[in-house]
């Protein structure tokens, strides 16, 4: 009786395939997680700049100058809500019209207040400015700043005018599509792993 011995090669191909699959799975998970975090951040920023102001009756405004630095920087978005003169106090950051009925708006801090026959009068100044602004009446105040969203104003300024509406709609649809895709899509190899 003779015994036939044949050399066998180690199953390194199978081990390498598993190692490559595990490596791809790791990076897929990292990218998927990063995408989910980015999506969540974009949704929160969008809500802070558009949805919340709409719900509470506030107005988001982009800061264009550095007069309120370091508190508020150019490119930040301030969310300002209407306020009555009786609710104002020294130290509040307010958005006002420097000239009555002029659409120009300025956001500065109240430095002093006085009441007289003509109503409440305010002196404001930008935190970075060396001099006070001309006195204004409380009627010129359009709102008190509730919160600031840093850097978002740069994006809104770059994407201005007629492009903004369609671009926001397209971005929103893209984000929703991506969310649905990542939630519905099965990872590669899911069917192979479940079969014996």
TrEMBL record:
Any single Gene Ontology cellular-component annotation: membrane
Keyword Hydrolase appears in the UniProt entry: yes
Major place of residence: membrane
A GO BP annotation: signal peptide processing
EC number: 3.4.21.89
Annotated Pfam families: Peptidase_S26
InterPro entries xref list: LexA/Signal_pep-like_sf, Peptidase_S26, Peptidase_S26B
A GO molecular-function descriptor: signal peptidase activity
Keywords on record: Hydrolase, Membrane, Transmembrane, Transmembrane helix
CDD domains, per the entry: S26_SPase_I
Protein name (record): Signal peptidase I
């Amino acid at each position: 009786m003779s015994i036939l011995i044949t050399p066998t090669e180690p199953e390194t191909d199978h081990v390498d395939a598993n190692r490559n699959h595990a490596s791809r799975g790791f990076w897929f998970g990292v990218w998927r997680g990063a995408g989910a975090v980015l999506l969540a951040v974009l949704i929160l920023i969008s809500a802070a700049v558009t949805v919340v102001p709409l719900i509470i009756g506030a107005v988001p405004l982009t800061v264009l100058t550095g007069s309120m630095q370091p508190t508020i920087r150019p490119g930040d978005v301030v969310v300002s809500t209407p306020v009555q003169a009786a609710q104002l106090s020294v130290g509040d950051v307010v958005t006002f019209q420097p000239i009555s009925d002029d659409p120009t708006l300025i956001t500065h801090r109240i430095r002093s207040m006085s009441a007289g026959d003509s109503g409440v009068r305010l002196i404001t100044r930008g935190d970075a400015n060396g001099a006070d602004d001309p006195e204004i009446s409380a009627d010129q105040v359009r709102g008190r700043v509730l919160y600031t969203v840093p850097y978002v104003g740069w994006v809104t300024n770059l994407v201005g005018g007629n492009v903004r509406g369609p671009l926001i709609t397209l971005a929103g649809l893209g984000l929703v599509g991506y969310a649905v895709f990542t939630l519905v899509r099965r990872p590669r190899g899911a069917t192979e792993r479940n079969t014996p």
